[in-house]
């Protein structure tokens, strides 16, 4: 084990401002300052596992679809404003029969990425039901982000970008379209969530509030990410 001086942890512990998981050390391979749990939710086959694999390994899981059974997680450490933020990302099974298994994990999650498939209308229509479930099982202040995945499949699109934007606006949550296949917006989605969680955990009373919607818009424009599929 390597130990790192973690002024953040001490400060937070002293003034008791955070209920987040703040840890000061890690194994040799996994060096981090602060850790959060993120959950991927959405109907079966929308691409949750592929989004996670793209983010974690930079690869696309093409070929035959293998539905996730139960729940699984992967860790990734990202840099946020010079802080090492560990995201423990839980990949849930979208199939109905596993729902009771995944419910048990909601309480621990600090962020939820709610995913639909832009080529599958029912997966979009079910987002409201997912949000009802989230309100029932998740923490009240959980960070939620809506993702319309498979943006590379322009010819098969049945859910317009504007529909995703409208729903997200109604629910007051950030939104973007992603592609686990091309990688479009995958890093940005996780990074925005990591930044929001880090700000919530470390914010001092007089610090300016982090505005996730504005951050996403500024980064989208920077990378020109949404112009191509
Ligand atoms: N073209 C394209 N195909 C994708 C994308 N993401 C996932 N897929 C494909 O969609 C299928 C389902 O992907 P998964 O990631 O396994 O779906 P899932 O949401 O994890 O499904 P469950 O585990 O059953 O909940 C697979 O055949 C993937 O190759 C994407 O961004 N673009
Ligand atoms: Mg899966």
TrEMBL record:
UniProt-listed InterPro entries: P-loop_NTPase, Small_GTP-bd, Small_GTPase, Small_GTPase_Rab
Keyword Lipid metabolism: no
GO CC terms in record: endosome; Golgi apparatus; membrane
CDD domains: Rab26 (cd04112)
Keywords: GTP-binding, Hydrolase, Lipoprotein, Magnesium, Metal-binding, Nucleotide-binding, Prenylation, Protein transport, Transport
Localization: Membrane
Membrane topology: Lipid-anchor
Lipoprotein recorded as keyword: yes
GO MF, one annotated term: GTPase activity
Cofactor(s) named in the record: Mg(2+)
Main location per the UniProt record: membrane
Catalytic activity: GTP + H2O = GDP + phosphate + H(+)
BP GO annotations: protein transport; regulation of exocytosis
EC number: 3.6.5.2
Family of this protein: Belongs to the small GTPase superfamily. Rab family.
Protein name: small monomeric GTPase
Gene name of the encoded protein: LOC101160735
């Amino acid at each position: 084990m390597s130990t790192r001086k973690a002024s953040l942890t001490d400060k937070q512990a002293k003034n008791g401002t955070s209920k987040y998981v703040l840890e000061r050390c890690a194994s040799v391979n996994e060096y981090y300052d602060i850790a959060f749990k993120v959950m991927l939710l959405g109907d079966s086959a929308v691409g949750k596992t592929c989004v996670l694999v793209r983010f974690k390994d930079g690869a696309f899981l093409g070929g035959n679809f293998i539905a996730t059974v139960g729940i699984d997680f992967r860790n990734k450490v990202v840099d946020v404003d010079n802080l090492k933020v560990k995201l423990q990302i839980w990949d849930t099974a979208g199939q109905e029969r596993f729902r009771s298994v995944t419910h048990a994990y909601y309480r621990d999650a600090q962020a939820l990425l709610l995913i639909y498939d832009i080529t599958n209308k029912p997966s979009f229509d079910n987002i409201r039901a997912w949000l009802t479930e989230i309100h029932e099982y998740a923490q009240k202040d959980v960070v939620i982000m809506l993702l319309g995945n498979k943006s590379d499949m322009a010819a098969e699109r049945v859910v317009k970008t504007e529909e995703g934007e409208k729903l997200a606006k109604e629910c007051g949550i950030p939104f973007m379209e992603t592609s686990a296949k091309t990688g479009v917006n995958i890093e940005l989605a996780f990074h925005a969530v990591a930044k929001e969680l880090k700000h919530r955990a470390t914010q001092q009373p007089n610090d300016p509030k982090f505005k996730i919607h504005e951050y996403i818009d500024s980064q989208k424009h920077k990378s020109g990410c949404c112009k191509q599929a």
